[in-house]
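Dear Dr. L.,

I hope this message finds you well. Following up on our conversation about the binding site, I have prepared a predicted three-dimensional model of the protein together with protoporphyrin IX containing FE. For your records, I am including the exact sequence and ligand specification that went into the calculation, followed by the structure tokens. Please feel free to forward this to your student if that is useful.
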Amino acid sequence: VSSWLGNSSGLPFPPGPAPRFITGNLHEIPAKQPWLTYTDWKSQYGDIVHARIFGQHIIFANSLKIATDLFEKRSHLYSDRPAAPMIDLIGWDFNVGLMPYTDKWRQHRRLFQQSFRPDAARTYRPIQMTKIHDFLRGLLSRPEDFVALYKTVAAAIIMATMYGYQVEPIEDHFVTLSEEAVKMLSDTTLPGAAAVNAFPFLRHLPGWLPGCGFQYFAAECRKRTEEMQQVPFDFVKQNMREGTSAKSIVSTLLEANQVIRAVSATAYAGAFTVSSLGTFFYAMAAQSEIDNVIGTHRLPEFEDRPSLPYIEALYREVMRWKPVLPLGVPHATIADDVYEGYFIPKGATIISNIWAMTHDESIYPEPDRFNPDRFFTADGKLNDDDTVLAFGFGRRICVGRHTADATVWATIVSVLSAFTIAKAKDEAGNEIDIDPVYSDGFVSHPQPFQCSIAPRSELAQNLVEATADL
Ligand code: HEM
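The resulting structure of the complex is given below.
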């Protein structure tokens, strides 16, 4: 009770909606697109907002300044993750991104960084391009399956770099395993999603008791999560035994070590966040820049990046407009703190409201409009707003960001160089409008929609077909 109500500091919590006695603000947390509600709270209460769900204090960092002050300048206090018993129950505690701020996290993060720091990330470029070219050929032969295809490209890159495993173009067993495990995680971690997060003692009660059905769900999740870690790991070990192992991060690091198993499965799950890729299909421009700089006789390469400022702006806008994790991954405090006269208790959940930051009208006028031009100065130069907020903050900033950045950029430029994407037409020849609908939950993916994807020219088609022989 003292943690629910208690604040012995004599200082106020940051402003926020009035909580009810027991449940706090639970009744105000919407199931759908909660980041929109939290961004409304920003207009009402300011850049730092406090809410409570049962005994859990939640602080929303709604501006870049607050995020920088807390997650970066006070990173020694703000780098923990909230304790969520449901994460342990479903077996996701193996994941670096969800681990508390402990020596174990440091060890996993260090290993991850070794394989994903900028110079290491550059060595994966050939694999990235190969998989992106597979994707382009997929678009030629099955444009109607573009959603399944772009989802696979991100997974294909991670699976090839981590495990040396080449995914099947459709319904790959490993990819399906990971997709299901990520979906289960997404369903169980939002505030208010699982009673056991609010009442941790419930984890000790058997599933047959009323209200404890989550135990059966959790047991099923644990099985999937275990499989998701073990199956691709066994694949590498088997190939190494048989001497057929392709070079991969796991085969390079492998000393039959549990940390590697967990770190690699973390990366494998990270693949799904690369669904930022879906977003850029909503927007078409920039082909003339590619034609002017690269010409039409070859496909783009990573080395072209500095010469393509418009594509750079397009990439930034894709990452700004619909951040894949609109509320980031929650941080938590490891001790009491006072910020600008407000009390922030130990164990509080700190949400980086990335949506509010990337839709801040004072920085991005008309924030809901997709407009890459906003990243140019008045004299037509790319501006210096090059920090992608979608990757989060401080010591917990996304470790896969260099690889993810390269994948998203290279996919955008490759598709644009070879294809025209337009609205689909109905039987009467009228254009079908696109209604951008995104999934709810922890990860926000674009939902399937219709559009027309066709090679820009015969030359473009030949270039894409020729990638099969590379
Ligand atoms: C467009 C793609 C991606 C986006 C937008 C993204 C975004 C994020 C965000 C917002 C966080 C939380 C940062 C914070 O706590 O403040 C995060 C953490 C993380 N990401 Fe990514 N990510 C992407 C791709 C990837 C990929 C491809 C990998 C793996 C190869 C990856 C691995 C991780 C890991 C391991 C963490 C946890 C770091 C920690 O807690 O110490 N991410 N990511």
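In brief: Strands lie at 48-53, 56-61, 331-332, 337-339, 342-344, 349-352, 419-422, 452-455.

With kind regards,
A. P.
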